[in-house]
Amino acid sequence: MPTTPPSEPARMPHQPTPADLRRWRQYLADERAEASIYRALAERREGEEREILLGLADAEGRHEAHWRALLGEQAGKPRHASLSSQLLGFLARHFGSVFVLAMAQRAESRSPYSTDPFATPAMAADERIHEEVVRGLAVRGRTRLSGSFRAAVFGANDGLVSNLSLVTGMAASGVSSHVVLLSGVAGLLAGALSMGAGEYISVRSQRELLSASRPTQVTLTAAPALDLDQNELVLVYKARGMSQAAAEHRAAERLGYFTCDCDPSLSLQPERADEEDEHEAIGSAWQAAVSSFCFFASGAIVPIVPFLFGMVGISALTVAAALVGLVLLGTGAVVGLLAGASPLWRAIRQLLIGFGAAAVTYVLGWVFGAAVG
After folding, report:
1. DSSP assignment of 290-341, as one string?
2. With pLDDT > 90 as the criterion, what percentage of the chain qualifies?
């Protein structure tokens, strides 16, 4: 991995003030912490990812040397890194997950070096590049996590919001708490079964479509009996996406005109099975159905917990809303972290969407209850 030359100390735009010295000491502590984070992550990686992380740690070490040189004898006792850096370090040492990389990506994007007169342009550029490097590493983890994580968040949030809306709507209509509880349990079971059945059908249908689309071995068995001058073998390969030249070359191979692979660039061999089975990549239909059922149910049970413990009326609704709100904030924050965005804003957005849906159904339930009454 190419490295940039060590950065030269910035020219002093003015004599450092006590505030400058304090800021430099904090920079020094944070650079040390960030280098330690990348080394801790590297210990849990192998091959290319390990080399990239160690390269980032070396770059942070150059930045550390810059601030140490500026401080000189005024470096003082080592300071504690910022709370966010300390948290990242703890997670990196004990977990080393994609969440740490997502948080590191966000931390790199907030570097103050572009506006600090004592940081060199090379250091500011380094930080911008570091953000992209960490983003690239995080993408690998996000890709591995995206399918199951999407299903988990979607299923749990769907259960949370739909059952909270159902419970609040029924409560607003004026029915007894016993009826509200029964409605919540029915909503949990109906929604979870619907999610499971829908996921089963979706995955099963996709597997069947892939099976119908996969090229067969018919060209191998039919080729010996084809007329050498009049045959549709070229059309078979063109239909599979080959160019005219590639299709003619492949047909000639099948008909025995070529005994060697004369032009490997044209020999696409579509009948060869993929190294990764697309069916396995999609997963089992039953596995997807059970997972969706469980994810939905885990969210849908939260709004009815107070009613299960015998609470009634407004107090039960308040506790249910509080519990759902906490879970929505948590899932929103996790999504924000994984996306490298603000976890606070994502958490609030998730909360507002969930409570907005519940508020609408509450009003509708109240209107319906008043009309019936």
Report:
1. HHHHHHHHHHHTGGGHHHHTT--HHHHHHHHHHHHHHHHHHHHHHHHHHTTS
2. 6
